[in-house]
């Protein structure tokens, strides 16, 4: 852990970003807009994941986005890859160790709302952990009893809404339900999710939000809608569809993110 922190600190050469952005499917190209970029392959960072998901590059990129400092994580580890909900804990501990205090998360998700079509962007206001797993399983201290009433930081959510409005980018809001994956949900599960109050379903983000709150990081998250959920169209779902559709919503989310940093909406 300390070795990884030291490696990143040395490679950053004095840069001190406070915000880190985890890039989900469809946002990989955003790293190319980072100015004065420092790129560190995950292979050079012992505790960082070796993602086995196509479309996840596996590198840390630091520099300026629209004039503001940022650190980007191009690639994450998913629960369905290994059955370890805490796989991203070492990564987030490293981020906290180098001074990050704001975590922005993005993902690809399926929509449960007919008016939230593929290509839409949804700001996550709350989540439902349907997987039954938790990244704090086994944590020996009372710190494991993390409050989640405001898991998604209100001020950071307001920044997303302000940036969307200023840039003229449509932004939906809703509840994200985490399924373990890697298989997609069944139509019956989607009907249940709708009854429970979910607006979108996906296979990531929730463990990272729980870990962020555990580590004292403020968190916000957005979903890029890549498809309607199972049973809504009669079509079968596939990861190929996710990869093909993610860039459409990814462009919209990138517009919002760039406006957040251009207008310094995350500054205290």
Automatic annotation (TrEMBL):
Taxonomy, superkingdom: Bacteria
Top EC class, one word: transferase
Record pathway: Purine metabolism; purine nucleoside salvage
Residues annotated as binding a purine D-ribonucleoside: 185, 227
GO CC, any one term: cytoplasm
Binding annotation for phosphate: 25, 56, 76-78, 108, 204
Enzyme Commission identifier(s): 2.4.2.1
CDD domains reported in the protein's UniProt record: PNP-EcPNPII_like
This protein's record includes keyword Manganese: no
Keywords associated with the record: Glycosyltransferase, Transferase
Key word Acyltransferase present: no
Gene3D superfamilies on file: Nucleoside phosphorylase domain
Record-annotated Nucleoside phosphorylase domain positions: 20-261
PANTHER family: METHYLTHIOADENOSINE/PURINE NUCLEOSIDE PHOSPHORYLASE (PTHR11904), PURINE NUCLEOSIDE PHOSPHORYLASE-RELATED (PTHR11904:SF9)
Quaternary structure, from the entry: Homotrimer.
Family designation: Belongs to the PNP/MTAP phosphorylase family.
Protein name: Purine nucleoside phosphorylase
Organism the protein comes from: Aquamicrobium aerolatum DSM 21857
């Amino acid at each position: 852990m300390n070795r990884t922190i030291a490696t990143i600190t040395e490679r950053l050469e004095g840069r001190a970003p406070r915000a880190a952005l985890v890039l989900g499917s469809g946002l990989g190209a955003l790293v190319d807009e980072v100015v004065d970029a420092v790129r560190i392959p995950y292979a050079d960072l012992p505790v960082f994941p070796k993602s086995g998901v196509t479309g996840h590059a596996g590198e840390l990129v630091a520099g300026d986005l629209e004039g503001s400092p940022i650190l980007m994580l191009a690639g994450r580890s998913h629960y369905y890859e290994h059955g370890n909900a805490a796989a991203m804990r070492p990564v987030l501990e490293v981020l906290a160790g180098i001074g990050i205090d704001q975590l922005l998360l993005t993902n690809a998700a399926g929509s449960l709302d007919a008016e939230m079509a593929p290509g839409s962007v949804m700001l996550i206001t709350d989540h439902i952990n349907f997987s039954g797993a938790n990244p704090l399983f086994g944590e020996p201290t009372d710190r494991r009893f993390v409050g989640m009433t405001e898991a998604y930081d209100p001020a950071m959510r307001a920044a997303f809404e302000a940036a969307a409005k200023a840039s003229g980018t449509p932004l939906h809001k809703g509840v994200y339900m985490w399924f373990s994956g890697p298989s997609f949900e069944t139509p019956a599960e989607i009907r249940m999710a709708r009854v429970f109050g979910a607006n979108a379903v996906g296979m990531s983000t929730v463990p990272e939000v729980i870990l962020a709150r555990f580590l004292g990081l403020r968190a916000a998250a957005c979903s890029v809608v890549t498809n309607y959920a199972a049973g809504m169209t009669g079509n079968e779902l596939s990861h190929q569809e996710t990869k093909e559709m993610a860039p459409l919503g990814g462009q919209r989310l990138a517009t919002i993110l760039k406006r957040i940093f251009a207008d310094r909406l995350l500054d205290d």
